[in-house]
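Session log. Operator J.P. requested a structure for one protein chain; no other inputs attached. Running the standard single-chain path with token output.
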Amino acid sequence: MRATEILQNEHRVIEQVLSCLEVMANRALAEGKLDATSADAALDFFQAFADGCHHRKEENHLFPLMEAKGFPRDGGPTGVMLHEHEEGRRQIQAMRTAVASSAVREFAEHARAYVELLRQHILKEDHRLFPMADQVFSSADQASLVESFARVRPRVPEAHLLV
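Structure written below.
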């Protein structure tokens, strides 16, 4: 299996939770109240898995190898993806703030923005970035990335750490 296939498979999982977040945002607006427990669970998933595991694989392993193969960061595809990862982190933090203050409309706005951002981000990676990577990576590069990915574990949100 190629490293990019692993990332694409992870995209399918992320898309499922994005759909749940979208339903949650729409329901919150329609009902005028937010299910904070479900919102926190979705945000925990995005922080631990989408960002803390999936994006770490890309940022610490995939992107540096692409850059070593000649893809520029500044003005290049990895720079665009990194910028979008940062925007996603800002949206997650804004959603956390909205949940903490029971700000339904703000939560829904940031949730919808996050859903749209990640859906477009995933399309770019699946249909542009990953095919470019696959064209320049050797079998040894792919195997090395797969090994590196296997060592990346989701980050557990601090609220879930046992003290």
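Operator note: Helices lie at 3-31, 36-68, 77-100, 104-136, 139-150.
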